[in-house]
Every structure is written in C-alpha cells, then in structure tokens.
Amino acid sequence: MERAQQGDRAALDLLLGRHYERLYAICRRMAGNDADAADACQEALLAIVRGLDRFDGRSTFRTWSYRVASNACLDELRRRKRRPIAVVDDPDRISERAEVDQQVADRVTLENAIPLLAEEFRAPLVLRDVIGMDYAEIAATLELPPGTVRSRIARGRRHMAKILGNQITSEERLS
User: Fold this and answer.
1) Angle of helix 102-113 versus helix 146-164 axis, rounded to 10
2) DSSP category for residue 167
3) Contact predicate 95/105, CB 8 Å
C-alpha cells in the first residue's frame, strides 16, 4: 500500500489485482448486470487510483475500496436510472436447459431481485449477505452508524423476501 502511494506502478497493479474480483462482485450484485457493473468497477478503480494519496489508513484498504466501489456503483445506477431493468419473472425462462440445477436458478433469481431493492438497502444487503462483511465493516464502508446499517439490512431483507415471494411486480420498486 505504501509503495503504491509513493508511485510504484507494480505495487499499484498488485494492490488493485488483489482486490479487483471482490470490487467487481460488489458492483455486479448492486448493478444487476455486467455492463453497468463493468462501468462502475472501472470508475471505482479510477477513483481508488486518484484517491490513493488521500487514503489515511484509518480503515483497512479493503473497507475503503469497498466504500469507493459501492459509491461508484450507486453513482452509475443514478446515471442509468432511466434505463429499464431486465428482470426474469418466469421461472421457466430462468432455466431453459434441463441440466441447470436449482442452485443456479436461485442465484439468477437473486441477481434479478437485487436491482429491485431501493438503493439505500441494496449496498448494505450486498455487503452483508453476498460479500460477508460484518456490521462494523459495513458501517465504516458506507459511513453510516451501525444502527442504521442493521436497520437497512433488516428492512432490505424484508423487501427481498417480498420480491422473491412474487408479492410485487417487476415494475414496482421498494422504498
């Protein structure tokens, strides 16, 4: 980290390479599609490089980079809000091939449901339930009080259950 901050290109490449998969995973889960995730991840990497000199070590690089990626993804989603969300509602369309097992279908359903969550619930829920961060890390990453993180995760899970239970249509967004 220190070498990257001092301008060592190889150290920077190594640092970004170590974290790229997780940063992309956060963006992919939050954005709901590969194109927006790639754009958001690219923006996050640029923001990390530009802000490297401002990283002061009060949090871990991982926590800081996740916050940058989450913010980049939320920015991307705000820019693209006018675009319709592709949602697969018909379970038969999720798995057209017989050999695709239920786990894959469940993952597709989950990935289609995450973009239906309101933005305030999406990031905490992805960071907790998909990435596996603890509440303190999420609070630091999103710069929110721990109580707010817990509340948003609980409310996000309730909304997700409604979405997955087909209690709302794909045109409805939860707030």
Assistant:
1) 120
2) -
3) yes
Set out the domains of the chain in order of their start, with CATH numbers: 1-83 (1.10.1740.10), 90-175 (1.10.10.10)
The rounded distance, in Å, linking the Cα atoms of 15 and 61 is 9
Question: Are the C-beta atoms of 94 and 54 separated by less than 8 Å?
Answer: no
How many CB atoms neighbour CB 75 within 10 A?
Answer: 15
**How much is the pTM?**
0.57
DSSP letter at 126 equals I
Predicted confidence band at 81 (pLDDT cuts at 50, 70, 90)?
Answer: low
99's tokens: 């050999």
Is residue 150 within 8 A of residue 93, CB to CB? The reply is: no
C-alpha to C-alpha distance for 119 and 174, rounded to whole angstroms: 9
Q: Share the mean pLDDT of the chain.
A: 78
